């Protein structure tokens, strides 16, 4: 078992990474304030892991709420199911919510915890690769709106994050590759040596080699923890973690939430960011090809689906948390392994890149 630390002063918390961690109370108990624990999961994950999770919480007063599975349910209406259960079971402000599932479950549970009685504690137990390497760490919580992804939410840090890598054994192939997109992101934005490791270990990751997955998760979490420790509320360097996301969120919103997985959309967005960076003269054509080949090796889509037009993309990109004074700011690449946030790019070049990047 590996243990990392997200260093945020009095809000610091550990990330536990290893096999067969579910059901071991010693990892969770120190981070639960009172006897009341509400486990939030979904219809896919609960049949697989809820019983084992609850077995590790003996001695606590536990309840659970099972949400429908999918990005299309990440909204305020479904969020109320969590509040309904908390109120009907008379949970108080010392209660702890436990998110057992992927990124949707984690985001919604964290947002519910941020809001319930103006803030209660929560713990992340991510069961997808994407959630283990990205969404469970850093305290971003929220829900989607029909006009924009993750536009309603709050920063609310968990008490701890427990990544049981055994849960990845039941993950669908498509979900595995979607998670690997976020792993690739860490290499491209600030960890050049990691890019080479990923190129050399793509086959092992897709084959779910436990040592390769554990290393990829640990390194991704460490990269993210280092950035979050410097910029918890995304006032500066943390925005670099959005490499590919402005494009990706537009694709997700335009196609309808859940049609394109988040990691798939981010993969497309990273390819678009590389193309635009090259057209601006910042990276070479061989850098774009290397990015494309790495994404392809991980079975990550790189081209925009035909279902969404260039005009839709441009309009939806304007609904982004990085927009300032009406200007869409993008995370682009100076080199492979060094990203930066900028509004100093050619709108004509961006339109041309979008027009020539369809599947």
Tell me what the structure shows.
- The chain is α/β, with parallel strands linked by helices and 359 residues long.
- The protein folds into 2 domains: 2-170, Rossmann fold (3-Layer(aba) Sandwich); 173-355, Dehydroquinate synthase-like - alpha domain (Dehydroquinate synthase-like, alpha domain), CATH 1.20.1090.10.
- 45% of the residues lie in helices and 18% in strands.
- The chain is built from 13 helices and 11 strands.
- The strands form 4 sheets. Strands 4-3-5-6 form a 4-stranded parallel β-sheet, sandwiched between helices.
- Helix 6 (173-190) runs parallel beside helix 10 and helix 7 (192-206) runs antiparallel to helix 8 (210-230).
- The radius of gyration is 20 Å and the shape is globular.
- It starts with a strand and ends with a helix.
Offer a few descriptive terms.
359 residues; alpha/beta; Rossmann fold; Dehydroquinate synthase-like, alpha domain; 2 domains; 13 helices; 11 strands; globular
Task: Report the helical percentage.
Answer: 40-55%
Q: Can you identify the CATH superfamily of the largest domain?
A: Dehydroquinate synthase-like - alpha domain
The secondary-structure element order is EEHEHEHEHEHEEEHHHHHHHEEH
Count structural domains.
2
CATH class value of the largest domain: Mainly Alpha
As residue ranges, the low-confidence spans are none
Task: Give the arrangement of secondary structure elements.
Elements: E1 2-6, E2 13-18, H1 25-28, E3 36-42, H2 46-55, E4 61-67, H3 76-88, E5 96-101, H4 103-115, E6 121-126, H5 129-135, E7 140-145, E8 148-155, E9 161-164, H6 173-190, H7 192-206, H8 210-230, H9 245-255, H10 262-279, H11 285-297, H12 310-317, E10 330-335, E11 338-342, H13 347-355
Parallel strand pairs: 2-9, 3-4, 3-5, 5-6
Antiparallel strand pairs: 1-2, 7-8, 10-11
């Amino acid at each position: 078992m590996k243990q990392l630390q997200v260093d945020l002063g009095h809000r610091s918390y550990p990330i536990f990474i290893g096999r067969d961690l579910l059901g071991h109370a010693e990892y969770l108990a120190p981070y639960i304030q009172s006897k009341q624990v509400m486990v939030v999961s979904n219809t896919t994950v609960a049949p697989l892991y809820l019983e084992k999770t609850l077995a590790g919480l003996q001695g606590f007063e536990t309840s659970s709420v099972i949400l429908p599975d999918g990005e299309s349910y990440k909204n305020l209406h479904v969020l109320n199911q969590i509040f309904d259960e908390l109120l009907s079971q008379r949970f108080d402000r010392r209660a702890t919510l436990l998110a057992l599932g992927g990124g949707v479950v984690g985001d919604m549970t964290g947002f519910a915890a941020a809001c319930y009685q103006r803030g209660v504690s929560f713990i992340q137990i991510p069961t997808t690769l994407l959630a283990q390497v990205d969404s469970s760490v850093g305290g971003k919580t929220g829900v989607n709106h029909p006009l924009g992804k993750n536009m309603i939410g709050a920063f609310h840090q968990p008490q701890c994050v427990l990544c049981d890598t055994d849960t990845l054994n039941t993950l669908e192939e498509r979900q595995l590759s979607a998670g690997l997109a976020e792993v690739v992101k860490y290499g491209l934005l600030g960890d050049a040596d990691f890019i080479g490791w990923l190129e050399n270990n793509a086959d092992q990751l897709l084959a779910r080699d436990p040592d390769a997955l554990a290393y990829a998760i640990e390194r991704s979490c460490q990269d993210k923890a280092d950035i979050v420790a410097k910029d918890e509320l995304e006032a500066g360097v943390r925005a670099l973690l959005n490499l590919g996301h402005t494009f990706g969120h537009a694709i997700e919103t335009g196609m309808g939430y859940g049609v394109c997985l988040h990691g798939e959309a981010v993969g497309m967005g990273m390819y678009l960011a590389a193309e635009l960076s090259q057209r601006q003269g910042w990276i070479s054509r061989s850098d774009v090809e290397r990015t494309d080949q790495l994404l392809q090796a991980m079975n990550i889509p790189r081209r925009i689906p035909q279902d969404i037009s260039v005009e839709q993309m441009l309009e939806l990109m304007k609904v982004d948390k990085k927009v300032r004074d009406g200007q869409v700011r993008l995370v682009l690449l100076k080199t492979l392994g060094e990203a930066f946030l900028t509004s100093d790019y050619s709108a004509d070049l961006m339109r041309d890149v979008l027009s020539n990047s369809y599947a």
